[in-house]
Amino acid sequence: MPFLGLFSNDIAIDLGTANTLIYMKGKGVVLNEPSIVTYDVNTRKIVAIGEEARKMVGKVHKELNTIRPMRDGVIADFEMAEGMIKEFIKKISPGIFPARKIVISVPSGITEVEKRAVRDTAEHAGAKEVHLISEPMAAAIGIGLDVHEPYGNMIVDIGGGTTEIAVIALSGIANVVSIRIAGDECTDAIIRFFRSNQNMLIGERTAEDIKCQAGSVMPLEEEVIIEVKGRDLVAGVPKLTEVSSIEIREALNPPVTQMVESVKVALEKTAPELASDILSRGIFLTGGGALLKGLDERIKVETGVPVHIADDPLTAVARGTGKVLEDLNYYKKCMLKR
Q: CA–CA separation, 47 vs 50, rounded Å?
């Protein structure tokens, strides 16, 4: 190993709408924090990032603002995204040697302009070499599929901002459907439900917690009832109410239906030989959305294809991006071209 290799800080980044995960060469996933930034309104200086910034959501005063620099899987605020990446890299690598190579996963439906923005952000954060890989390809590699073989594998990666449905074979994506409806849209659906059905306003963090505790897309063996705190829209005072998992399921139905319909569209567009492989192997669910209770069963019922939830679906894309970083030559054909 060259002497400088001892100090290599090469990293792989899953730059997600909801969470950013960083994989360091030789160490695995070393960071998993929310993609949130709190900054000073007057100076634009970053005050907090990640988990620390998440605790401030909805609680800041007028001198501070809390934002998510990523929207629908791509960079919405270039300056804050760059600052966030720099701060995250500092957290895991406080030394003087910057990352020489960075591999970043991006949505498969990304435009050329959005690709350029991601590359520029990584270069401004100190990278000498930047490689991009599509999220479904990274997810497939992360869950241990051999993406080079002549067999079709269908990946459904449900993140915060995008749902990526891809059929992968021979180191490439044979067919892809990418929609900007995913975890965030489900969270918004819960907020809208409380506004219209309960005359109550709840925050994003509360809606996210409700989704994790009571969210489902198929009937549960034991339906649950949880308490929810928010603000009464009529009286303007704090309010406490109860909601059942049945009501939350109804609220989640519109975005979930769109996701399932997109899986059907992807299957319709798939070549017959690849479709037979998918029927044998099943559909693989990755991303945070894969944890939504009953989603695998719903897709199976509506498509007739077996569905498997990946082990640790939240880190599948990060682990796959990390594997690409570890062996760039082997996965060269899998990466996005400039």
A: 11
What's the pTM value of the predicted model, to 2 decimals?
0.92
Contact, 119 vs 295, CB < 8 A? no
Which pair of structure tokens corresponds to residue 36?
Answer: 């949130």
Q: CA–CA separation, 25 vs 156, rounded Å?
A: 26
* Span 209-241, pLDDT tens digits: 999 999 999 999 999 999 999 999 999 999 999
Q: Map tokens 């939350």 to a residue.
A: 248
What is the 8-class DSSP label of residue 37?
A: E
Query: Which superfamily, per CATH, for 144-181+253-311?
Result: ATPase, nucleotide binding domain (3.30.420.40)
**HSE-up (13 A, CA, CB side) for residue 18:** 20
Q: Assess if CATH 3.30.420.40 describes domain 3-138+317-334.
A: yes
Q: Answer whether 139's CB lies under 8 Å from 316's CB.
A: yes
